[in-house]
Amino acid sequence: MKTKDELSVQDVAGILKVSKSKIYSMIKSNELQSYKVGRKVRFSEDDIKSYIQNSKKGDLVKNREILTPIRNEGFVLCGQDIILDILSNYMRQRGVPALRAYIGSYDSLIALYRKQVNVASAHLWDSDTDTYNVPYVRRLLPGIPAVVVHLTCRIQGFYVAKGNPKEITSWEDFGRDDITMVNREQGAGSRVLLDENLRLIGVFGKDIAGYDQEIQSHLTVASIVASGKADVAIGTEKIAKQVEGIDFVPIKKERYDIVFRREDADRYEIQSLLNIIRSQAFQEEFSQIGGYDTKDMGKVVIEF
């Protein structure tokens, strides 16, 4: 194998014992996570391991749909940020078999409500209160006593072409007729941030070129902007640093939290998870990576 973060299509085809065309088909259907460096498709070793494990278990996500309730089939941690991949790896090292489900914030909370996952993650902005996550937990988990624990803060903003040739600096620019965007899928935190702000300024998504082009990855939307196929996309600052050919316009500091049912608070898996994110080793790892604010990591935000 090459380094674990730069596997090629040919490498992955060899690992999975399938054709290169099958790999491209899996990328298109969102079965397999990938990213682009210029025009080249690349994969991380963790992406491939997650795909293999998900295929074996059959209880994770395929095309944004939860296949089966988890019940006694495993402990499932839901969300799309790499911080959750590393967290699940820490848990496995401690003997806790944590599985991963890769769906957006809104669907993550719905899955928690339906007992299809054990821990959901969210970065959902509420424009009425200018707060993150808590209003959505109350609405999407009605009657469910829950605990919200802070994981990190990230910066959300606009991915634009190098030099920002179209001078995109605010939400109002999405109302211009010379702007083409690429969007995140419904329910993603970045999509909610966009839609809430469009509502506030009175711009309809149908009037924005590219609004209906939905992608399930920050890396992919950033790569599309870098390729010149779109002028702007919404995503996190950390990803912008990984893709050549784009600049980042910071817009909003967001809170990224995890949520679990209060009835599960004493479970060994939950206690292990909390001990890990509150540990110095875990927090130091992310303070060195950059793009993550670990100041209040592990702090209980609210218990319902």
From TrEMBL:
<dbReference type="GO" id="GO:0003677">
    <property type="term" value="F:DNA binding"/>
</dbReference>
<dbReference type="Pfam" id="PF12727">
    <property type="entry name" value="PBP_like"/>
</dbReference>
<feature type="domain" description="PBP">
    <location>
        <begin position="91"/>
        <end position="278"/>
    </location>
</feature>
<dbReference type="InterPro" id="IPR041657">
    <property type="entry name" value="HTH_17"/>
</dbReference>
<feature type="domain" description="Helix-turn-helix">
    <location>
        <begin position="7"/>
        <end position="54"/>
    </location>
</feature>
<dbReference type="Pfam" id="PF12728">
    <property type="entry name" value="HTH_17"/>
</dbReference>
<protein>
    <submittedName>
        <fullName>Molybdate-binding protein</fullName>
    </submittedName>
</protein>
<dbReference type="InterPro" id="IPR024370">
    <property type="entry name" value="PBP_domain"/>
</dbReference>
<dbReference type="InterPro" id="IPR010093">
    <property type="entry name" value="SinI_DNA-bd"/>
</dbReference>
